[in-house]
């Protein structure tokens, strides 16, 4: 169930990111997003595992895929991945082309 919830976020992220492919600085933005995603995924792995180990929250087994990184279900990692690419892509699309070219 949780895995199905991640699909719209990941699809939207892919669509919006691809829509910025012709904008200036796309390669640099993708590199920055990839590094950001890596850091966010590492932080998610650390803090989700700590919070789950401390019993601050749990996931019903029947709602997750069963794939885990430590105690954290793999589904938890889709949101930081999406954010690392979607937020810069939206900012790029909201920036007028002329301002992008001057920067």
TrEMBL record:
- The identity of this protein, by name, is Lycopene cyclase domain-containing protein
**Which InterPro entries does this UniProt record tie to the protein?**
Lycopene_cyclase_dom
* Record-linked Pfam families: Lycopene_cyc
Pathway given for this chain reads: Carotenoid biosynthesis
Q: Which domain of life is it from?
A: Bacteria
- UniProt entry keywords in alphabetical sequence: Carotenoid biosynthesis, Isomerase, Membrane, Transmembrane, Transmembrane helix
Q: In terms of one coarse class, where is the protein primarily found?
A: membrane
Decide whether keyword Membrane is in the record: yes
Q: How does it sit in the membrane?
A: Multi-pass membrane protein
Membrane listed as a keyword: yes
A single BP term in Gene Ontology: carotenoid biosynthetic process
Describe the location of the Lycopene cyclase domain by residue ranges.
10-90
Q: Name one GO cellular component term.
A: membrane
Where in or outside the cell it occurs: the entry states: Membrane
Q: Name one GO molecular function term.
A: intramolecular lyase activity
Give TM regions.
37-59
């Amino acid at each position: 169930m949780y895995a199905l919830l991640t699909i719209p976020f990941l699809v939207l992220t892919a669509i919006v990111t691809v829509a910025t492919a012709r904008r200036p600085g796309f390669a640099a933005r993708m590199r920055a997003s990839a590094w950001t995603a890596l850091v966010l995924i590492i932080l998610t792995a650390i803090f989700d595992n700590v919070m789950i180990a401390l019993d601050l929250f749990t996931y019903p087994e029947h709602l997750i895929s069963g794939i885990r990184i430590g105690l954290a279900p793999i589904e938890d990692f889709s949101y930081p991945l999406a954010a690392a690419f979607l937020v810069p892509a939206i900012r790029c699309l909201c920036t007028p082309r002329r301002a992008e070219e001057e920067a």
